[in-house]
Amino acid sequence: MSEDYFALLGLRDVSFSIDLPLMEKNYIGIQRSSHPDRFFSIRDKETAARHIAKVNKAYLILKSPESRAEYILSVGGVKLSDEDRSKIVEEIFSLKLNGVDVGAEVSNCLKSMEKAFAECQMYEAAIQLERLKYLKRMSSGIEGYAVSRYS
């Protein structure tokens, strides 16, 4: 990923905890100032359209905690080991069997992920992100192959 989505939206630091109202304000300002209709030449309109497309993508990614975490981890090159992925699948399967409150688990997972990012524990943040993905699948009834194959 060559674009710095944080800089593109006028955010100073690459951080999981962001100022969402500031990001929204910056996004709207960029939309107004860079809209292709504000330009006359075809070349300038096309350049503006490409820029706006990048800004839109950055905004959508950073707006969601899950996709923001994925972006930060991918930029940092953080990847989970197969062993840790297997442990997470087993844990989520166990939660499913025990009828655990998934909503509470999702909330705890988000808090743990935010704490891990704040403490620059990127691998732990990646673990929490993976847990969050499985928990969300479980809560929506869309169970990934790794979990549902044991059911």
Automatic annotation (TrEMBL):
Domain of life of the organism encoding this protein: Bacteria
The leader peptide range reads none
Where are the annotated coiled coils located?
A: none
Q: Which residues form the J domain?
A: 4-75
Q: Which GO terms describe its molecular function?
A: ATPase activator activity; protein-folding chaperone binding
Biological process terms in GO annotation: [2Fe-2S] cluster assembly
The family database entries (InterPro entries) matched by this protein are listed as:
DnaJ_domain (IPR001623), HscB (IPR004640), J_dom_sf (IPR036869)
Q: Which Gene3D superfamilies match?
A: DnaJ domain (1.10.287.110)
Function, as annotated: Co-chaperone involved in the maturation of iron-sulfur cluster-containing proteins. Seems to help targeting proteins to be folded toward HscA.
* Entries under PANTHER family matching the protein: IRON-SULFUR CLUSTER CO-CHAPERONE PROTEIN HSCB
Q: What's this protein's name?
A: Co-chaperone protein HscB
Q: Which organism is it from?
A: Anaplasma platys
Instruction: State which gene encodes it.
Output: hscB
